[in-house]
Specification:
By secondary structure, the chain is mainly beta. It has a single domain, classed as SH3 type barrels (Roll). The protein has no helices and ten strands. It has a six-stranded antiparallel sheet with strand order 6-3-2-1-7-8, with no helix packed on it. The protein has a two-stranded antiparallel ribbon with strand order 4-5. The chain has a two-stranded antiparallel ribbon with strand order 9-10. A hairpin with a 4-residue loop joins strand 2 and strand 3. The chain starts with 9 loop residues before the first strand and ends in a 9-residue tail after the last strand.
């Protein structure tokens, strides 16, 4: 099945501690059904000092389940579902993602 949420997408968190917050997808892990979203689901991590990194407590993003995030509609920024539409004819035929809420094409 084609990916509905991709790296670089603007998403809104639907449930959990960060409900209502939005951010950009940094990484998608399709095998785990999870994604990393910039500035969302922050956790503290105790980091051991190395030659490259300083030690101490650092904050980093933890993965969030794909069912708990939704694409932010390009027109009003509210959460929307994503559908697919075939555009073009013949050799130029391709599938583009479409926001169900407003009907706006996402990549295309």
């Amino acid at each position: 099945m084609a990916a509905k949420i991709k790296k670089g997408d603007k998403v809104v968190v639907l449930t959990g501690r960060d409900k209502g917050r939005s951010g950009e997808v940094i990484e998608v892990r399709p095998a785990e059904h999870r994604a990393l979203v910039r500035g969302v689901n922050m956790v503290k991590r105790h980091q051991k000092q190395t030659a490259q990194q300083e030690g101490g407590i650092i904050s980093k993003e933890a993965p969030i389940h794909l069912s708990n995030i939704a694409y932010a509609d390009p027109k009003d920024g509210k959460p929307t579902r994503i559908g697919f539409k075939v555009v073009g004819e013949g050799e130029e035929r391709r599938r583009v993602r479409v926001a169900k809420r407003s009907g706006a094409e996402i990549d295309g």
